[in-house]
Amino acid sequence: MTGAATPEGELIRRAQAGDQEAFGQLVAAHAERVYGGLRRFGLDPSEADEVAQEVFLRAWRGLPRFQARARLSTWLYRIAFNEAQRRLSRRPPPVIESGSGDEDPIAALPEAPQFGPEALALDREFERVVERALAQLPPEWRAAVVLRDIEGLSTEEAAAVAGVREAAFKSRLHRGRMRLRALLEPYLGLEEGEHG
Amino acid sequence: MSTVLYRLRVRRDHRWAPGHMSAYLDGELSEPSRARIERHSSECPECRWVLKSLARTVTILRRMPAPRGQGDPRDLVIAVRSRLGERPRP
Ligand SMILES: [Zn+2]
Predict the structure, then answer these.
(1) Among residues B48, B38, B61, B36, which one has the least CA distance to residue A179?
(2) B15 in reach of chain A (CB within 8 A)
(3) Which positions in chain A touch B71 (Cβ < 8 Å)?
(4) Taking CB atoms and an 8 Å cutoff, what residues of chain B touch A174?
(5) Between A and B, how many CB-CB pairs are < 8 A?
(6) B75 found inside a domain
(7) Residue B45's closest chain A neighbor by CA?
(8) CA-based angle A44:A47:A50, to the nearest 5?
(9) Considering its fold, how many domains does chain B have in total?
(10) May I ask the CATH architecture of the domain A8-91?
């Protein structure tokens, strides 16, 4: 093996032909994004570790059918998305704390009115606020926001990963963003004068 | 335009605008729709605030770093490779 990185297309061809070493290099290259996607879709760290293995094992089995025209990262996301949704669907539905039913969801977020515009530097504490807000979204809305806004996929790619038409995807994305906007509103640090 | 017609138009735009803000931010609206959002935002403080805070929310999401706490990717490679023979390809 030479020191230079082998082009991904070449690794894919070798892995498709059964080269486990080449596949290992693909796993190494995509491990972080797959793991990150699984966590963002809503799995906890130990679940994400376990499911990441499952994703790559499925990829290995499915690789002979992988079309070189597609992007490997998008294809892996699709597998990760499906595995994560499957795992999430087995969970009991979230328990709504205290029975009144009209709880302000913002109350579930930590008190942090001291965040000003500097919060946009996304310090660790503010990151946790965003993560907790994401955790309050229905899984489909959450996945749409993760794929499009956090992972930066195009609408077309993200809809393909989520397995829905673009119109349906855009609707989920919009709802997810609007819910997040409402949850994060107290933290945005925008000038009060703008608030009508 | 008469005040009554103006108010009716603003109210119609006010009902229409929020549902189109994501598409507006993603540059996916037609030119007339884009102009309609912009005109309404200039007329309606409430929608101006929603649009601005929605844009800020999307910016924040784009800056979110990868989740922390992942182990060494090499461990995953080892785990996966040790299991490749478990379920041979069909
Ligand atoms: Zn309005």
Answers:
(1) B61
(2) no
(3) 49
(4) 19, 21-23
(5) 128
(6) no
(7) A196
(8) 150
(9) 1
(10) Orthogonal Bundle (1.10)
Cβ–Cβ contact B32 with A under 8 A: no
Per-residue model confidence (pLDDT) at position A97: 46
Residue the block writes with tokens 């894919």: A12
| Predicted pLDDT of residue A30 | 93
The residue ranges of chain A whose pLDDT is under 70 are 1-4, 93-122, 189-196
What is the DSSP secondary structure assignment for residue B49, as one 8-state letter?
A: H
In this structure, how many other beta carbons lie within 10 angstroms of the beta carbon of residue A196? 10
Contact A32 B70 (CB under 8 A): yes
Which residue from A36, A49, A120 is facing B66, i.e. has the nearest CB?
A36
Report the pLDDT value the prediction gives residue B15, as an integer from 0 to 100: 97
Domain enclosing residue B13, as ranges: 3-65
Q: Does domain A108-196 have CATH number 1.10.10.10?
A: yes
Sorting pLDDT into bands at 50, 70 and 90, what band is B89? Answer: low
Residue A117 corresponds to which tokens in the numbers above?
A: 């515009």
